[in-house]
Amino acid sequence: MARATVKIPTPLRPFADGKAEVASNGGTVGAVVEDVAANFPALRKHLYTPEGKLRSFVSVYLNDEDVRHLQRDATPVKDGDVVSIVPAIAGGAPASARPPPGPALTVLGSAPPAADTFNAEDLRRYSRHILLPEVGVAGQKRLRRSKVLLVGAGGLGAPTALYLAAAGVGEIGLVDFDEIELSNLQRQVLYTTRDLGRPKLEAARDRLEALNPGVRVVPIAERLTAANAMDTLRPYDVVVDGTDNFPTRYLVNDACVLLGKPTVYGSVYRFEGQASVFDAKRGPCYRCLYPEPPPPDLVPSCAEGGVLGVLPGLIGVIQATETVKLLLGAGEPLIGRLLLYDALAMRFRELTLRKNPTCVLCSPTATQHGLIDYLAFCGVPDPAAPSEASGLPEITPEALRDELAGPDPPTLVDVREPNEWEIVHLDGARLIPRGQLPDRLSELTGARRLVVYCRTGGRSSQATRLLLDLGFTNVRNLRGGITAWAQRIDPTLPTY
Length: 496
Ligand SMILES: [Zn+2]
Fold this sequence. Notes:
CATH class of the largest domain: Alpha Beta
Distance between the termini: 49 Å
Strand order of the largest sheet: 8-7-6-9-10-11-12-13
Oligomer: single chain
CATH architecture of the largest domain: 3-Layer(aba) Sandwich
Bound molecules: zinc ion
């Protein structure tokens, strides 16, 4: 029996009494993880399926090696070993395979044509690059001939875009369809307070072209889908994944593998970030690491869990660094390595990622040769569908206002987290975070009529379903959540 340290990642810490690491006993990796699950029962459902199998979106590492490439659960553990649990996270997630030794210097930027010259101003602008032997005038011209696509112009995309524009990357494509909100400005440094309400792409283009008029910014104001992804990605040399959701993340990965392009991956959650480079020609793809996404209700998003503002800045700058290196063919890319960053501990770690020899997408025995329905694959309701809570009893904000003013007002249940409650809540509501609901049902048994709400209606529809399944008969979901209430009933309330 050995004593090992088990590293608990940020998203799972709430289920392990907030601990970042715990000591655990066992002779094998399987026994060590089982020991942790036994000590923290709330953690179990995040680690194991109901059948007792380790979930496929959870990777386990012994020291820096993925145990799938050792002896899996049966891998022996010695005293002092470090076992890391690394789940897929939405604002960013990890991958797997060691970079092959040898001829790694693939140059992705197109070679400059003979007549491609820099004027005196260009030479001065890029002089600190040109002084580097690894760049020089030839490398700088490569950057100018290069095209990079940023999927997402948010927390990760903002710093990446700024540095790629400053570096003189010739064309930057930006995929995004959001408008700038006040809550974006804590981290999305591409935008200013004056830009509030503008489409991100418009503000981004102004800012990037002001920074470097030599850069062409191509705004792509569409949701990336299986129908348009191949054509959208095809013209670009490198794709930077700055998405915050699993359907787009798998879509970008799959399209890049099929097109033979590298993806520069980054992801953030609370105080923890991840970065890697997926290039199926030279290493693993995202699916080698996580063959399947987590169920949508098991992993919180940054909108629920929060994120330290500087964190996407740091991860985005790492993504920009890797992109420039790929374009130049300089240095050692982050292929086959997953970089983990913990801002609270101010510590970087690196895990080895390996190609999955049976990956459905990038292995010789691949069975998937095209794009699929990613919303269905990730179990996410189609946002274009009429109602995500179809079949569930709902109440509109207007109807709720009338009922609350009436003789028999319903009991309001807020299923968000305490920090969200502190930002805004409805008068008279009762706070029971969704995860605690099954243990706190007794607080609701006296209530005859319940209305459940969250930020925008997603978590509350799950809670409504749960309450109905448990036998509560008069439960309704507030459609659009407290955000819709603030927009339509009480505009003095803050939204976030
Ligand atoms: Zn793969």
